[in-house]
């Protein structure tokens, strides 16, 4: 059990990088890291103002007063850090940290031979030597990574560390492969892919047996690209509960970091005790992503802009409605054979929300039983979400107009659905009619709302924003979830 009373399903540690100008500032941040739930702190000596740094006194103070186990790093500029001074002094400070009681020190692979010569093989048993390598350009092949790990192990490292850069999200699969296979050797490993495309490597390392992951104290204050916060790891991704059997789900998109889907799904997983995690997946090519992560452990995906139409082509089976719409926003991998089943929930969620709000506003059902029947329904956008809304509104008896930046694409969708097409530029001079519904399925902010009802031929301001009614506010919240995910 953790101190918070949450049962831990893994031994992977959360390490908080501590970067500050002064020792006093570091001590404040170290205590903050403990209160947030970190397991240890990485003290970045290279972040301190070097002109006032007294190695023995300052390191002794940090070791003595740290509320958590310590990892000392003194990263040089040639390995992505801030220290640009004398190399002998840098290594001597790390040796001093080891002798004064540090729990871990991090020495770069390029410098470890010099460090080993410095200690003459005399290393305190309490201190674990992490030997690290950082690649800020790409993620090498599995063979190259395997050779790198073997080279690091040969230095006498207690813990192997490598960090690469994820140029594509498929690069992370190689990091997972090496992490899982390294468990056989018995040498703990810290392995991650940096950058937004590598986020999954930091969140899922407990599933593959990683020794630790790095979690920052606040957004934007990172020691390497792509680090999540401690609070996101614990509260958003349920980090303590992840393990080898955890099923992975996620939201595929580009961009995708704005999505609230992980917040919704992970909270739901936690509430019912389901062993799954839902993550952001910044994907450039859907087919390559699905081909790479074809294991049934990667069990299902939501999909947002711009991949909904591409995902349809990648599914082994597609729901007939999704086929008619021409877009898939949800794909589930069948556990028995790994095949991918695609469907579209955009139109159900969005149209139902609009109907419910209309009924709550006192609008009577039309001839089809839907309050949308006979209404003019203008959809901004002809992508996957636009197709879904246009299809759903048409099925309810609405009259459809498609407005899109590219007129030809609007015309193509209007011909399929049975409606009118206009360009986005024409929308500014479009004459509304009473009871018309305007639904924005793009990233463009249309006066602050996603859905509007036009009453008596004009918009009505509400609460300082250009909303037509309370209905707009309700649907804005719901549509943001269902349409933009």
What fraction strand? 15-25%
What's the overall geometry?
A: elongated
CATH homologous superfamily classification of the largest domain:
Aldolase class I
Oligomer: single chain
Overall strand count? 19
List the total number of helices: 17
Main sheet record: 8 strands, parallel
End-to-end Cα distance, whole Å, is 34 Å
Mean pLDDT: 89
Main CATH class of the largest domain: Alpha Beta
Taking all Cα atoms into account, the compactness measure Rg is: 27 Å
* Gross CATH architecture of the largest domain: Alpha-Beta Barrel
Q: Helix content range of the residues, please? A: 25-40%
Low-confidence stretches: 455-485
Q: If you consult CATH, what is the topology of the largest domain? A: TIM Barrel
**Content-based structural category:** alpha/beta
The largest beta-sheet arranges its strands as 7-6-5-4-3-2-1-8
Give the number of domains: 3
Structure, described:
- It is a single chain.
- The chain is of the alpha/beta class.
- It folds into three domains: about 15-245, Aldolase class I (TIM Barrel); about 260-345, Leucine Dehydrogenase, chain A, domain 1 (Rossmann fold, 3-Layer(aba) Sandwich); about 360-480, Rossmann fold, CATH 3.40.50.
- The chain contains 17 helices and 19 strands.
- It has helices spanning about 25-35, 55-65, 85-100, 110-120, 140-155, 170-180, 200-205, 205-210, 230-235, 260-270, 285-290, 310-315, 320-325, 345-360, 385-395, 405-415, 470-480; strands at about 15-20, 40-45, 70-75, 105-110, 130-135, 160-165, 190-195, 210-215, 245-255, 275-280, 300-305, 315-320, 330-335, 340-345, 375-380, 400-405, 420-425, 435-440, 450-455.
- The strands form three sheets. It has an eight-stranded parallel beta sheet with strand order 7-6-5-4-3-2-1-8. The protein has a six-stranded mixed beta sheet with strand order 10-9-11-13-14-12, sandwiched between helices. The chain has a five-stranded mixed beta sheet with strand order 17-16-15-18-19.
- Helix 5 runs parallel beside helix 6 (about 170-180), helix 14 (about 345-360) crosses helix 15 (about 385-395) and helix 14 (about 345-360) packs antiparallel against helix 17 (about 470-480).
- The longest helix has 15 residues, at about 345-360.
- The protein is elongated and about 85 Å long.
- The protein starts with 12 loop residues before the first strand and ends with a helix.
- About 45% of the residues are buried.
